[in-house]
Amino acid sequence: MYSLGKKKPEIDPASRAALVRDYERFRAGLPQSLEAYVNETYQIDLSSEYGDHSIKNPFGKASGQLSLNISQVRRDCEEGLGFVVLKSIIAEDASGAQSMSEWAIEETRMVVERITGRDQTEGWTVSWKGRGWYETFEKYLEFFD
């Protein structure tokens, strides 16, 4: 499909045309089984493993505000993501005390701010208030299950 050893991969014209065709075809939505389509069309197996767990594709969601409840995770599964990393748990001792409790707050909100880069290019940055799981470890285990 491409030649190695050069800084920029060279894609043969037929493969390039197929990728462009797929981009146009699937820009509004992916095929019912992305994994089967990629395997059949490009002979690429998207699956992998993480420990004892099978991962159907490498497209997933990292830990954050969009992975902290069951409805979000369920929606991600229905939409075909290969994995979801659950909201970060804040460590606690046997009594339930947390040394980083300031990160474990219920109120989470997104702050979007305009930024200007060194080259004067304008863009946006997103930050969050509330970074960790705010309920008990037992509740986290229930969520995990």
How would you describe the overall organization of this protein?
With 145 residues, this protein is α+β, with helices and mostly antiparallel strands. The strands form four sheets. Strands 1-2 form a two-stranded antiparallel sheet. β5, α3 and β6 form a beta-alpha-beta unit. The longest helix has 14 residues. The model has no long low-confidence stretch (mean pLDDT 84).
Which short descriptors sum up this protein?
8 strands; alpha+beta; two-stranded antiparallel ribbon; 145 residues
Could you give the topology of this structure?
Elements (H helix, E strand, L loop, with lengths): L1 E2 L6 E2 L1 H14 L7 H9 L5 E3 L2 E3 L4 E2 L8 H9 L4 E2 L24 E8 L5 E8 L7 H8 L1
Parallel strand pairs: 5-6
Antiparallel strand pairs: 1-2, 3-4, 7-8
